[in-house]
Write a structure and sequence with these properties.
By secondary structure, this protein is mostly helical. It has helices spanning 2-22, 37-72, 76-85, 91-98, 103-114, 120-125, 161-174, 179-187, 191-194, 206-218, and strands spanning 140-142, 154-156. It has a domain at 36-113 and 170-225. The longest helix has 36 residues, at 37-72. The two termini are 41 Å apart.
């Protein structure tokens, strides 16, 4: 009997090793040649889903901890520090700043802003969301085209995809342009109601929100919210 168990164990190891050998290992800094649409999306999900899920869980854990602190009156120093960080004064505003929106929205924006992980900014700078830089002391890269033919546009360069995602959640929790967005995402987890308030994220406004909704629906991204 022990011999049979040993054979089964060894067989499982061989199977696992074979799987690891044939499973593609994607890199953000490398785009495979002649990718099909299916392969492009597979690469994107492989690179983004684990990182987005990890950061989302971090942010949500902090939100829950602060919500508990506010109810019990504990950790006042941390609460004050976070209010300063997000430039808010009330407890309600802090909770709206901290509560993360569903993963499906983050993935949809990442796919749109990075052309499914193939944009130059994504490949060379881990810049998942097309975030600009106005600080010359930041690590950044120049856009290949100038705005209005004269102005150089700089984009942030991040050390990792996770860093880019953390910065994104921080920006969405802090920027004045997303005040209405934060209110709606705090009130509901309905993805399609929340994305309607992302019209300030893009110059194309309402059209951008409709494209996000369509991307979430077509690619069944809400499966990652579960």
């Amino acid at each position: 009997m022990k011999y049979i168990y040993l054979l089964l164990f060894m067989s499982s190891l061989v199977f696992a090793n074979n799987i690891s050998e044939i499973a593609p290992k994607y890199s953000a800094s490398h785009i495979p040649q002649k990718m099909s649409v299916a392969t492009k999306k597979k690469r994107f999900y492989s690179l983004l889903v684990p990182s987005v899920t990890k950061v989302h869980n971090e942010v949500f854990a902090e939100y829950q901890a602060v919500k508990k602190d506010l109810k019990s009156g504990s950790n006042a120093i941390r609460t004050a520090r976070l209010k300063k960080k997000y430039n808010v004064k009330s407890d309600a505003s802090l909770l709206r700043a901290l509560k993360p929106h569903p993963i499906s929205i983050t993935l949809a924006q990442a796919a749109m802003e990075s052309a499914w992980g193939t944009s130059r900014f994504f490949v060379k700078a881990n810049n998942v969301f097309g975030v600009w830089s106005t600080n010359k002391n930041q690590a950044r890269i120049a856009a290949s085209q100038k705005r209005n033919g004269t102005r150089t546009i700089w984009l942030r360069k991040f050390a990792s995809i996770e860093d880019a995602i953390r910065d994104y959640y921080r920006m969405m929790g802090k920027a004045k342009a997303y005040r209405d967005f934060r209110l709606v995402r705090y009130q509901t987890n309905d993805v399609y109601k929340i994305v309607k308030k992302l019209d300030k994220y893009s110059e194309i406004g309402e059209k951008y929100t409709k494209e996000l909704a369509n991307m979430i629906r077509y690619n069944k991204l809400t499966q990652y919210d579960k």
